[in-house]
Amino acid sequence: MALEFGDNAVLARVVGPHNRHLAEIERKLSVEIAHRGNRLTVKGPAHARAHAGQVLRDLYQHAERGNDVANADIDSAVRLGLEGARSSGDGISVATPKRIIRPRTKNQARYLEALLENDLVLGLGPAGTGKTYLAVAVGVMMLARGQVERLILSRPAVEAGERLGFLPGDMKEKVDPYLQPLYDALRDMLPAEQIERRMEIGEIEVAPLAFMRGRTLANCFVILDEAQNSTTQQMKMFLTRLGENARMAVTGDPTQTDLPLAQPSGLNEARAILGNVEGVALVEFGEEDVVRHPLVRRIVRAYAAHDASRTDKRRP
Questions:
Q1: CA–CA separation, 22 vs 14, rounded Å?
Q2: Closest to 300 (Cα-Cα) out of 309, 310, 285, 290
Q3: 2-84 has which CATH code?
Q4: Which residues belong to CATH 3.30.1370.10 in the chain?
Q5: Which of 1, 109, 250, 297 is surrounded by the fewest CB atoms within 10 Å?
Q6: CATH class of the domain comprising 93-314
Q7: pTM of the model
């Protein structure tokens, strides 16, 4: 199979330094790939050649949009082709000022659809599945298009017991360590000067969950991250802040709560209570949706197996 690509500079990002990315695809799919000029030649069994060809085309499209190609992108492209899931997310993308973001798994495609169509979305699953990142992307896109007036990002500061007054520094210095992952996502989607300007005029707000009490959140896109660390009372308080022309995304990993052992998680209760409520979408991710380093997926799988075996031993 011979594949020709129009832009050698884009193709160079696909093949990687010293053809490193091609070697990774060869290893994963048991094929041989030769690179000459703007042409890639794939050798191997017919099904493997077809799979590799689709992976290379997908990665080229990814690089053509100005993105670098990383091992996680290769891993995702291989899995999408293997699952036959490419068509599920093919028409979905989120355009932010710095980059275009597309789903890498079937569940990510379902999640993006839910975020675009529902007023409240619960995204649950392990770390590295894109729950927060994709929610921030949709919020940034809606803000940039003028569909909402504000983007509000929040997390429980549970490590400080929400008693932020005891921490040193001004309020921004107190809460920033807990909200850093949200800042990281913002920086990936908006130029630094836009983030600073929009925060100064209140179009972007990053605040701990405790600060949501008593507010009505209208004309905004609101994200509650790490929601497994919210209590039942905090979750109900947060969800009932929803105002006119507002959307909410609530994300978290129910298996990684930092709450005291006797304290139920507001996220788990929300999942049970709101699962069949009209206007609420629930998307659950699994280890197959992890798009970080491939080792993260294996770590999540190992912990899940350990937890399952421990549960089995407790049964009479």
A1: 8
A2: 290
A3: 3.30.1370.10
A4: 2-84
A5: 1
A6: alpha beta
A7: 0.67
